[in-house]
## 1
Amino acid sequence: MAEGILRHLYWDRYEVFSAGTKPSSVHPMAIKVMKEVGIDISDHRSKSVYEFLGEEFDYVITVCDSAREECPYFPGAKRYLHRSFVDPSSADEDKMLEIFRKVRDEIFRWIEITFGE
């Protein structure tokens, strides 16, 4: 979701890549809640951070504690940022949609504060 939000808000300022320490598929609920706010991430794919080793980035951003601990070092990165969000896919089935929306909105606010002017 963070990749989609950052691309949506600041597509003209940042080239955005997203990857995980344990890549899987993009959760259907993430696609659904992002579509609710006009962002289509249905064509995104879950990638491994190891696909990007050797690349140089201005920012390396982690959005969960385990990713922060497991993320490899990117020597060319100018800045590392971290903010831990709840993993909405681990929520109870009956609260999952609500948690995905809450996390989406928290990510939106954090990105606006962190990268907005």
Note: The chain has one domain: 2-110.
## 2
Amino acid sequence: MAVSKPEQTHPGLKTLWAPWRAAYVASHRNKKQSCIFCLGRLNARQRRQRLVLYQDVHAVAMLNRYPYNAGHVMVAPRSHVGSLDLLDVEQGVALTKLLSATIGILRRAFKPAGFNLGANVGRVAGAGFADHFHWHVVPRWQGDTNFMPVLASTKVISQHLEASFELLSPFFEKVHEEMVQA
């Protein structure tokens, strides 16, 4: 069976194919889902189960259950709003502080060569949880994209989520202490 070359959507613009994400997208179609970012106070066991690394009155940080890379963290406000511009100043400052702290933690824990930071605002922009604004913080390394997605339709994540949680939790505990003292 011959495989045709996919058409380019815009001349000169390359397409990044991520077929391993199809399972995630399909699992959420036609499902009424609760918001993963709207959390009550969680005990340690619940935080571990939900991969929540940090939470306070204004913001939450959690590992992405469907990561692009090891250490993929999502940072969100506690307020259930769909866009950054809908936060008040205090919430925006708290979110920015946690986003900055998350980058610093990932830099120390994983020693990446760089980061992708992104937010998809609205369903049409690709937001899986369009009603709750959140940032994606994805550590990147030289050569972290290889032949596996192309030849085997498989994305290689170099570390298990539980191992990432164990590695990052102590760093986020220190951030919590610092934020409480501030």
Note: The helical segments are 22-28, 44-50, 89-110, 148-152, 161-181.
## 3
Amino acid sequence: MGNHIVMEPAYKIREIARHALTGYWKPVVLGVLIYYLLSTGVMSFLDYFFAYDYPVEVYEGEVVETSFGFGGSIYSLIIGGPLQFGISMFLLTFFRARKCDNTLLFEGFSNFSRTFVLSILVGVKVLLWSLLFIIPGIVASFRYSQAFYIMVDNPTWTPSQCIRESCRIMNGNKGRYFWLQLTFLGWYMLASLPEAIYVAISPTSGTIGGIITTLLLALPALIVDAYSLTAQTAFYELATERLVVVNDYEPENVVHAEYTVEENPQNEETDFHEE
């Protein structure tokens, strides 16, 4: 079975994402914040409390103490899958029904084994491709990027089936998905600037207070996260043809364009019409 190639350019997908977020920025950013605290936030504290200190010789006998945090890695390995499933369900529900239900962020824990196995399989496959070189690993991450969305839409599928379907969907779409993500790079750099400056110049960035400050300074990036994740969700909807962009150009020059949403009582697909 063939797959659908997403022909909409990145700016058009971002426009769809902005249309979806209109009037919903606060609840979506709140959902992303909860996900951020449960993932990055908890990992940062676990890395602080569970770390291995070891000496490293840097120059002519000069030795410095280096710390390797392993608590966050173990935590991420265990609950990364359920959390990824939860944020995927949250985003799909919001995009399709304009409903922000933060309890969906925890839905992955009700199906822990499948989401855990899917996370492990994706991680191992990306790691193995990364051993060849960095670029194959990046390509592999794009190839499997839709697996959790697919598991949300197909709750009876096995993790392997979700991975195979993601490979099929992304065949011919990986470059377009990469470019979509690349268009957010400037926004991420700008939003992360306060955090980067603090970590670079503050001698206390590794303390508990420094970790809290770092997490707070990263909050502006969550707005970009909400925007980027919504655009990625729109990409999935386009790739699976649940979302169809219909171009209805008037014979005269079009001077204004906006997207309108058509209600679908069967909740099967949403059409965006350019008027």
Note: The longest strand covers residues 51-59.
